[in-house]
Amino acid sequence: MAEIVAIKPALAEGPVVARLDKGVLRLTLANPPANALSLAVMAALTAELDRARDDKSIRVVILSSSEKVFCAGHDLKEMTAHRADADRGRAFFEKTFAACATLMQAIVRLPKPVIAEVDGLATAAGLQLVASCDLAIASHEATFCTPGVNIGLFCSTPMVALSRNVSRKHAMEMLLTGETIDAATAKEFGLINRVVPREYLNQIVTKYAQTIASKSSLVVKTGKEAFYEQAEMGLADAYAYTGRVMVENMLARDAEEGIGAFIGKRKPEWPEE
Asked: How far apart are CA 220 and CA 204, in angstroms?
């Protein structure tokens, strides 16, 4: 079982709490009662990811929550309040969904892996948040849904991340029924990687993060970027692109050191960036 790691004092307080320990940045949603993605929360998350991108001491990011609900999606009360605007809320709605798209793409484009630690309900844009992460590990108590169809608002933007994680049939099942699935079903669908007991969730996610953090940051960055780039290409283009990536990777000092260490049967010492 993974060892429990000491958590350093928070770097910042607010709707998102940031803590850095041994190269792992933990971003905890702290917007009670349901960790809704208000504009303030999305701005805070995006700002933390932007800082993580440029901070060489950060090698892996974990997204977690402090409430029973991992994330309830967009703040519907905040959005509804703007129906009284002269444009019936159009400008605010456009701003909200643009901010959400920026956040989700920031996760995908971050040159460092992002792991979702899910304990509780992840619904609508909250599920989108989970699906946008590179890895997702959930407790047995975690649940997932895209319930927009139940309230007259189809989960069109969550659909983007969802449909890139699970099969079309499974995605449409969730989107059309709006029903909640349990963690075991989410794993079966391919939405999450593992289901673990709640009492070990934090330890196991931290262990995953530390394992990844021990790898060459250059190689991890190269691999993550290439993964998402090739996924949008046709087969021939994907092979041509990844072939070029492999050549550049082979020429990097990290590959020279790593392969040399493997042949020499020793532990690699990754060059400093």
From this structure: 20
Residues 6+ apart with CB under 8 A from 185: none
Each residue of 5-60: pLDDT tens digit? 333 334 446 899 999 999 999 999 999 999 999 999 999 999 999 999 999 999 99
Dmax (CA) of the chain = 70
Q: Please report how the helices 39-54 and 90-109 are oriented relative to each other, as an axis angle in degrees rounded to 10.
A: 30
Please report how the helices 235-251 and 253-263 are oriented relative to each other, as an axis angle in degrees rounded to 10. Answer: 80
Write the DSSP symbol of residue 10. P
At 144, list the tokens. 């997932």
DSSP state of 41: H
Confidence at residue 5, expressed as pLDDT on a 0 to 100 scale: 35
- Give me the torsion for CA of 6, 7, 9, 15, rounded to 10°: -170
Element (H, E) at 75: none
Condensed to tens digits (0 to 9), the pLDDT of residues 154-192 reads: 999 999 999 999 999 999 999 999 999 999 999 999 999
Contact in structure between 185 and 130 (CB atoms under 8 Å) = no
pLDDT at residue 272, rounded to an integer: 73
Residue 7: phi, psi to the nearest 5? -100, 125
- pTM of the model as a whole: 0.92
Give the C-alpha distances (Å, rounded to integers) separating 155 from 142, 190, 202. 20, 19, 29
Residues 6+ apart with CB under 8 A from 261: 267, 268, 269
**Distance of alpha carbon 48 from the chain centroid:** 13
Q: Which residue has the tokens 């890139």?
A: 164
